[in-house]
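Posting this for the archive.
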Amino acid sequence: MNILVVDDEELARKRIQSLLKEKSDYNICAEAENGAEALMMVERHQPDLILLDITMPVMDGLEVAKHLASMPNPPAVIFTTAYGEYALEAFSTKATGYLMKPIRQEQLLKSLEQARSLNRAQRSEMLDKTDSAIANRKHICARRRGNLELIPIEDVYYFQADQKYVTVRHKEGEVIIEESLKSLESDLSERFIRIHRNALVAKSRISGLSKSPIGRVKVTIDKIEDELEVSRRHVAEIRRFVRER
C-alpha cells in the first residue's frame, strides 16, 4: 500500500515514518506539508491512502477531502489531528479512519488494515458523502493542461454552466471544471446567489442591475465588463438582494 503523509509539522511526518519503517506492506511514497501540496502529490503519485492532518495552512484537511471526492480514483483517507473537537466533522466526510496525535503504532496499523480492505467504489462513496466539511471550502480545484490549479473562492466572479461543464470566471481569467452548478450552490450558498438556472454570481461582486435592449434584466459585475442575464424566475429575488444590501 502506497501512502501519502500530509502534515505541516515535520516531526509529525517523521513519527509516522518511524512507525512504518519496518512494515514492508506499507510504503510512504510522498509527503506534503499543506492541503494544496497534498492534491498535487495525489495527482503525481496516485497513493492508495492519505494520512491527512486536519489543521494546516493554505488548505485544511477537510477541504482536501472534498476535492478528492471529485477524482476518478480517490485514495482512502485517514485523518490525523491533535484536536478532538474535529472528530465529528471529520467523520461527516466518511473518511476511512480518524487518529488522535500522538499516534500509536497499534492504532495506525489497525486503521491501515481497515483501509486496505476498501475497493475503489467504496472509497469514492465515502469521500463523496461530505456535508459539514464543505462549509469551510476556500478553493475551486481545476485542471489546466494536465496541471492542478487552485482558485481562491474570493477571486471568483461567477460560475456559468454549459451542459455538463461549468466555466469559472475569476480574477486571472477563466477555467472549465466538471463540478455541477447544483453542487457549487450547495457548497457556497452563503457567498453566491443564483440568478439563472445556468449561473451563480458572487454576492460581493454584484454592482447593480441593467436592462438589455429587449427589456431583459441583467446583473452587472464589479471590475469586469461581463453582464449576465437574470431569469424571470429570479428577478424579484435579485432586485430585493440589490436593494437591501
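Residues 105-116 form the longest helix (12 residues). The helical segments are 10-20, 35-45, 61-68, 87-91, 105-116, 120-128, 181-188, 235-244.
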